[in-house]
Design a protein that fits this description.
Order of helices and strands of chain B: HHHHH
Structural class of chain B: mainly alpha
Strand content of chain B: under 5%
Oligomer: heterodimer
Number of helices of chain A: 10
Radius of gyration of chain B: 51 Å
Distance between the termini of chain B: 118 Å
Helix content of chain B: over 70%
Distance between the termini of chain A: 46 Å
Largest sheet of chain B: none
Shape of chain B: rod-shaped
Largest interface: A-B, 53 and 38 residues
Number of strands of chain B: 0
Structural class of chain A: mainly alpha
Radius of gyration of chain A: 19 Å
Shape of chain A: elongated
Strand content of chain A: under 5%
Order of helices and strands of chain A: HHHHHHHHHH
Number of helices of chain B: 5
Helix content of chain A: 55-70%
Chain lengths: ~210, ~150
């Protein structure tokens, strides 16, 4: 069901902040209908982010619900300094990290600074590597999902927020509580990781 | 508070340039082309149920608030009644003390005159009632003892 306050209106950069703040204000007064509109606007994107951060589908659904429960409970504390989207994704990220800690799955993280210094700009002389020409088949989608899953949460979160959610560097920095430089480093490493994974796939398919 | 907008250094500028490069944007386009995830209606109704489950706590709180407000209202009403009651009491006392002095004086004078008249007629020890009674008896002359006077 399409609501008058749709995803695009709320989440785009040109969104009506006044409308969003009015909704938040109504939520502070325990207006369930206003909160329902916020859920309508963000549920798919939050779920998409969480699903790629949490590999298990059912668990992802639970975590995504928990995001909105926390948001509902904490709406009084939302001061509006960041956008609602930033706040929601911060909750989502924190819950994913908490869940990861609970199951004691230490991310396979390489030291970002060290790698970033050594890393050279990627060049792809292989003619088969042309992202624009790559048709996103189900098989490729599976490959991308697998590559994302093999990434550490730190890299994955930045990649998803920037490339999927179309967040700016400073917004990601706010969401993840990181300096902008770190955001860029992680994004570079994440793309690098994905490129390597897809190159392997492309080369394997070509042989 | 963290400074998210820290100044760009040359290394970061280079990094930004790499991120904006064609290959970087290619990866971005692949990620953006990934199919959108959608939540099911079942998921949404489960969320609604969880949100509703939070509601009783709020209702209890609001009921407690209503109770508290009613209590405060009763207390205020009692206070107002008390004030009105005390005020009306003091008004009564005030009214008594506010009798016109001239009226009071004239009443005293009248009383004194009656007393004098009574004592002149009957001598000391007689009470007012008796004088009045004797006066009325004089007019009727039916008392058997009146002959003896």
């Amino acid at each position: 069901m399409e609501l008058c306050i749709g995803t695009k209106l709320l989440s785009s950069r040109q969104n009506d902040l006044a409308t969003e703040l009015a909704l938040v204000e109504r939520c502070r007064n325990q207006d369930a209908e206003a909160f329902g509109k916020i859920v309508d606007a963000y549920q798919h994107r939050v779920f998409g982010f969480v699903r790629r951060m949490v590999s298990d589908q059912d668990e992802a659904a639970d975590v995504a619900q928990e995001v909105f429960i926390r948001a509902y409970q904490g709406m009084v504390r939302f001061d509006g300094r960041s956008s609602l989207r930033t706040w929601l994704f911060r909750i989502a990220y924190n819950l994913c990290v908490d869940r990861s800690r609970k199951i004691d799955r230490t991310p396979q993280e390489t030291r970002i600074e060290a790698v970033a210094e050594d890393e050279q700009p990627l060049e792809f002389p292989d003619a088969r590597w042309d992202p624009e020409m790559m048709v996103l088949t189900d098989e490729l989608v599976t490959q991308v999902d697998a590559a994302l899953e093999s990434m550490s949460e730190k890299l994955r979160s930045v990649l998803l927020l920037h490339d999927k959610e179309d967040m700016a560097y400073d917004e990601i920095a706010q969401t993840l509580n990181l300096p902008i430089g770190t955001v860029k480093s992680r994004l570079f490493l994440a793309r690098n990781h994905l490129q390597h994974a897809l190159m392997d796939y492309v080369q394997g398919r070509g042989n | 508070m963290k400074n998210y907008n820290e100044k760009n250094n040359p290394a970061e500028e280079q990094l930004t340039a790499m991120l904006e490069s064609e290959s970087g944007q290619g990866i971005r386009s692949i990620i953006q082309a990934m199919p959108e995830d959608t939540v099911s209606l079942q998921w949404r109704s489960a969320l609604n149920e969880r949100l509703l489950a939070l509601a009783p706590t709020k209702k209890k709180l609001s009921a407690a608030m209503v109770g508290l407000r009613a209590l405060v209202g009763v207390a205020l009403a009692s206070a107002v009644c008390l004030v009105v009651f005390v005020k009306s009491d003091s008004t009564k006392v005030h009214t008594a003390s506010m009798v016109d002095p001239s009226t009071f004086a004239s009443a005293l004078i009248t009383e004194h005159r009656q007393s004098v008249v009574s004592s002149e007629i009957a001598g000391p020890g007689i009470v007012d009632g008796e004088v009045e009674r004797s006066n009325s008896q004089d007019s009727n002359s039916n008392d058997p003892d009146s002959d003896s006077l």
